Amino acid sequence: MERLLALANPARFNALVDRLFWPLVGATVLAFGYGLYGAFFTAPPDYQQGETIRIMYIHVPAAWLAMFVYAGMCASAFGTLVFRHPMADVAQKAAAPLGAGFTLLCLVTGSFWGRPMWGTWWEWDARLTSVLILFLIYLGIIALWRAVDEPGRAGRAVSILTLVGGVNLPIIKFSVDWWYTLHQPASVFRMGGPTIHPAMLTPLFVMGLAFLLLYLVLLITRMRTELMERRAERLTILAASRQGG
Amino acid sequence: MLAAFGAHSGYILASYAAGILILGWMILRTWRGHRAAQARLARLESHKQ
Amino acid sequence: MRAITALLIREITLARRIGAGAGLGLMFFLILITLVPFAIGADQRLIGTLAPAILWLGALLATLLGLDRLLQADEDEGALDAMLMSETPLILLLLVKAVAHWLVTGLPLSLAAPLLGVMLALDPAVMLPLALSLLIGTPALTFIGLIGAALSVSLKRGGLLLSILTLPSAIPTLIFGVGVVKAAEAGREIATPLMLLAGTSLLALAIAPLAAAAAIRLARE
Known about the structure:
The complex is a heterotrimer.
Chain A: H1 2-6, H2 10-42, H3 56-81, H4 88-118, H5 126-147, H6 151-175, H7 198-244
Chain B: H1 9-48
Chain C: H1 2-18, H2 22-40, H3 44-77, H4 79-85, H5 90-104, H6 106-119, H7 127-152, H8 158-185, H9 191-219
Helix pairs in contact in C: 1-5, 2-3, 2-6, 3-5, 3-6, 3-7, 3-8, 5-7, 5-9, 6-7, 7-8, 7-9, 8-9
């Protein structure tokens, strides 16, 4: 907890980013390298789906990140509203477009996977619809960030929207369950343990890690950018007031 | 090599191409935004002096 | 209690005077219903099949129309600041505003829907379930819209943003609402989907005033 509070100081945060950046980038490249190698060469083709299963190694990690990023935004929203942590809204603003990107990738790769497997580019089943709605909620959050000028006020407004949207997500998943489900039921994070072959599970987790590391690299970069932009804004206002006064 | 991936190789290719495009765009946007902010800040701070 | 009743009456009167109420919403509803058969074509059977969906979508859009006026007028007049400083809790005031909005928008729409359904070749057997679903579901739409309205008040292009913010959250209501009609069409009992719909409305009623009050307060800091 103290660590988090310490990071509230932008200078400290920047110092931390400087230390972490290149190691993270290196780790990301390694993870992608190892994961992709595993996805294409080590992992066996699927008994039913053949080679098309390879799409899983990009579709599933994208889905994991789409939801993980939103959960992170919800946690940051708490940070902004309840704890008034100064960096929380910076984190949220940085995360939103990244989460939207992962969600879009999940939808697109899912469509490419669905076409050969189910014969259709799209279906209005529980999972697909929920993810599409998650994408729309991301877009709404990005729109709200852009609509409010003052960063503090924007952060608070977006936090409320994020949390309301978060309540919405289980309801949507829950409500659409009464429709027929074309999408595969859970095969990794389930009660009895994963049902996927271990040789496939490892590349999948490595790719998941790779996506996570990429997200972290992009997140801290975007947070840095946001801090710089805010400082630039303040300097601009200072300069203008000095000239005018 | 594509043939080795069977009949649906086009979809596999398209998926990974989408990955490269979308993740690549995210990386590019992030990087460009960072550079632009850096440049702007540097300009403003030099004017201050 | 008297203060709340007074506020309720005032809100309803204002809404009707501004014309954001029953008149405008119903007119939009009617125009939409008229447009759709032209878009679908002269296929009576198809129109009849789609009628519940068209009516639900129409109710959703008509509700959305009146929502940005819900708080914008108060904000423009400074009445919002007065509300913040009054003795009555802001949450309660917002609740009353939303109820007034529904009485003037959602309620007339729900009552008018079966009549308009005739124009859309709606199966008479499902008219009552449809009206019930709208009656129970439109409050959810109003309350969900309240959150969007509070978030986008005094923003440029607030109306458009309001729609973007509200529509994803309105989807479960739409799903459940049409679900009631589908159940009726299939001959199944409608109590369960109606309960789900009622649950959605109650949840929205519980959360929305809180979230909206928070949004308005925090926007002022």
